[in-house]
């Protein structure tokens, strides 16, 4: 999900559910799978046979492919924003890198792909790989995450872990390796089940209603204008799992611009900080903490005074195989807070 505000990044947990699947089993060179017909973001995706020369246009798509053991079916990758998951790095290093950012249409065509995949709409812009419709005219099927459709009306409106798993299943189906999707999903679901253990036990603030979970502010970036989680993104998926409340769940945008006065009024129990690698104002988790502690308005927030911060990789807030880590880290913090 590269929305207006989000870039991709990394989970650092070596036990990542797709990681072990990607490292364990190479893709089969022969596959009896027949044609696959999908409707993806309102467009047909017709694949006559399991692709052998796939191109991924950014890191989330690349890591899903690698987690499914499909490195030997890849003719190229691009747009790496953070270190690749450690367990996937040996496979990643075997895949040609087409561009530091998005490859041009010419670079994509030069790779002679038989399948193109991205989880970001921006990858299919005219100044990037070109539209999926144009690729289809060339006989190249192209897949896009259902959370980031070209037409917002076609998109899945709320991120769920089941929705992420459906995308993994789609890619595994296209490549004729459904059993690998089952393995990746089992591992990720196991991690989610473990993360769920502490979510609902954290103590909510005195202002919360009866039986309400703790209130979380998901602070993504910016200091003069903070971007925070509204409704529909990965924070909703984590909140549903752990029984927490999003402090800005009433805002019908995934990552709206907020303001500190309104944040102070809502006084969240816990602040979740996205740790971004871009190097901009308020990107790193430490820069966020420093700002919150010195700003006259935010320094008085209960969560700031008590140091109730959770640091999560910014990349885990994109819907991907990395999102499980956000649930793990928040769940662990809530268990600690409840003690």
Shape verdict: elongated
Find the CATH superfamily of the largest domain: Nitrogenase molybdenum iron protein domain
Q: Tell me, rounded to a whole number, the average pLDDT.
A: 88
Q: Give the class from helix and strand content and strand pairing.
A: alpha/beta
How do the strands line up in the largest sheet?
5-4-3-6-7
Strand proportion, as a percent range, falls in: 5-15%
Instruction: Evaluate the radius of gyration.
Output: 20 Å
Poorly predicted ranges (pLDDT <50, ≥5 residues)? 1-31, 198-211
- Give the number of DSSP strands: 12
Largest sheet: 5 strands, parallel
CATH class of the largest domain: Alpha Beta
CATH topology of the largest domain: Rossmann fold
Count of distinct structural domains:
2
What CATH architecture of the largest domain would you give?
3-Layer(aba) Sandwich
The helix tally amounts to: 12
CA-CA gap between termini: 35 Å
Give me the strand/helix succession.
HEEEHEHEHEHEHHEEHEHEHHEH
Helix content percent band: 25-40%
Describe the structure.
It is a single chain. With 339 residues, this protein is α/β, with parallel strands linked by helices. Helices cover 33% and strands 15% of the residues. The strands form 3 sheets. A 5-stranded parallel sheet has the order 5-4-3-6-7. Residues 1-31 and 198-211 have low confidence and may be disordered. InterPro entries: ABC_Transporter_SBP, ABC_transptr_periplasmic_BD. Residues 189-208 are annotated as: Disordered.
